[in-house]
């Protein structure tokens, strides 16, 4: 089996040096059983700009070939403290609960109120309707709303012991697993939770949620960019980021900063694209009319200018708003909403499977 895996790795080349991963000595270790395959890659320079791309490619190829196995591909840091780092990475892989998650997608926005949480919950429902196992981690300490979106505000998470460690059991609604910072704090506390407290609570959610196996984990990030974002990003191995914006917010500095944050060489997370929310309004009595209340074409122009894709446009739909209030994402109750989110979710799936 290891030989087969090496053969697969030999089909992937480093875009800069042209060498394949095996001959170039980029394969640090392979451990493989029928259930679990772990491949460690090591590049010559620290923070190799192609590391994430290559890692994603290897992951996709192995998943294609070994559909039943849990695949983990990670990149080992090059530094003088290798032994210590190895210990840390091993420890992280032993204990992180996201090692059984195929794809982790961060949903971000420049500002609050643009519909980031609504988009997250509807995308999760769309992905679940495709047959994927989906989880949502609500890390928006400033306005955690996923528990409300899924109607599980009263859920009080229990703990289980697995291999002598405590894990938190997420809520589950229609096959979607949900854990939110709101389940650990009172709503009125939220604003006081910035900084250290929020950080340590989030670390617990990230490392101690019993997700089981997931195909997609969506992270509802706090709006904006800041220390809290960097700490979440560094704790999780994120495969791609989606930026939500309204048409008039799209080109403003906050959104630009959002894209830059993920693209920063120290972070290096692929930006899958932008979702334009509240793109237009169509009244029921004038079904052929589109009113661009917040301006037209902003997201498209912006996406083109920074070289990211426009993943989808979601109009203003009353059911979407009602879905947030009733605790059932409108994707499951409204066929128009379903149509828009189906297209957008499919684009995200395609992008993640084709190496971004
Ligand atoms: P954020 O997470 O960015 O702060 P929310 O997801 O909480 O924003 O959305 C803010 C408000 O806008 C909510 O009341 C939500 O119901 C509403 N909303 C979001 N997207 C739409 C849409 N496409 N059509 C109608 N209402 C929407």
Architecture overview:
This protein has two domains: 2-76, 2-Layer Sandwich (GMP Synthetase, Chain A, domain 3); 94-355, Rossmann fold (3-Layer(aba) Sandwich), CATH 3.40.50. 35% of the residues lie in helices and 23% in strands. It is built from eleven helices and 13 strands. Helix 4 packs across helix 11 (335-353) and helix 6 packs parallel to helix 7 (227-235). Bound molecules: adenosine-5'-diphosphate (ADP). Adenosine-5'-diphosphate is lined by residues 109, 112-118, 143, 145, 277-278, 314, 316-317, 320-321, 324.
Task: Describe this protein with a few key phrases.
356 residues; alpha/beta; GMP Synthetase, Chain A, domain 3; Rossmann fold; 8-stranded mixed sheet; 3-stranded mixed sheet; 11 helices; 13 strands; binds adenosine-5'-diphosphate
Q: Secondary-structure map with pairings?
A:
Blueprint: H1 2-9, E1 27-32, E2 36-42, H2 51-65, E3 70-76, H3 82-95, E4 101-109, H4 116-129, E5 134-138, H5 146-149, E6 159-162, E7 165-168, E8 171-173, E9 176-180, H6 196-208, E10 214-220, H7 227-235, E11 240-245, H8 253-263, E12 271-281, H9 298-306, E13 310-316, H10 318-326, H11 335-353
Parallel strand pairs: 2-3, 4-10, 4-11, 5-9, 5-10, 11-12, 12-13
Antiparallel strand pairs: 1-2, 6-7, 8-9
Helix pairs in contact: 4-11, 6-7
The structure holds adenosine-5'-diphosphate.
């Amino acid at each position: 089996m290891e030989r087969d895996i090496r053969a697969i790795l030999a089909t992937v080349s480093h875009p800069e040096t042209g060498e394949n991963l095996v001959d170039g000595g980029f394969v640090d270790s392979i451990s493989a059983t029928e259930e679990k395959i772990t491949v460690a890659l090591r590049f010559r320079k620290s923070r190799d700009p192609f590391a994430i791309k290559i890692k994603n490619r290897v992951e996709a190829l192995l998943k294609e070939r070994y559909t039943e196995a849990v695949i983990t591909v990670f990149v080992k840091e090059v530094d003088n403290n290798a032994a210590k780092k190895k210990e840390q990475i091993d420890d992280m892989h032993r204990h992180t609960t996201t090692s059984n998650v195929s794809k982790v997608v961060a949903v971000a926005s420049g500002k609050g109120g643009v519909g980031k949480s609504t988009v997250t919950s509807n995308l999760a429902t769309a992905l679940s309707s495709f047959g994927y196992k989906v989880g949502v981690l609500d890390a928006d300490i400033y306005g955690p709303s996923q528990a409300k979106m899924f109607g599980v505000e009263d859920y009080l998470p229990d703990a289980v012991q697995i291999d002598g460690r405590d894990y938190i059991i997420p809520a589950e609604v229609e096959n979607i697993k949900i854990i939110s910072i709101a389940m650990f704090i009172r709503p009125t506390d939220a604003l006081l939770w910035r900084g250290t407290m929020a950080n340590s609570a989030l670390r617990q959610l990230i490392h101690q949620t019993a997700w089981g196996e997931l195909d997609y984990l969506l992270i509802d990030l706090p709006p904006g960019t800041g220390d809290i974002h960097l700490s979440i990003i560094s704790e999780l191995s994120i495969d791609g980021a989606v930026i939500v914006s309204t048409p008039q917010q799209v080109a403003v500095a906050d959104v630009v900063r959002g894209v830059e944050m993920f693209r920063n060489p120290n972070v290096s997370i692929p930006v899958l694209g932008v979702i334009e929310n509240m793109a237009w309004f169509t009244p029921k009595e004038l079904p052929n009319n589109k009113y661009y209340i917040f301006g037209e074409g902003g997201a498209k122009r912006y996406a083109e200018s920074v070289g990211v894709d426009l993943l989808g446009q979601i109009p203003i739909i009353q059911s979407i708003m009602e879905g947030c209030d009733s605790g059932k994402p409108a994707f499951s109750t409204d066929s128009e909403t379903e149509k828009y989110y189906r297209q957008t979710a499919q684009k995200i799936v395609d992008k993640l499977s084709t190496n971004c």
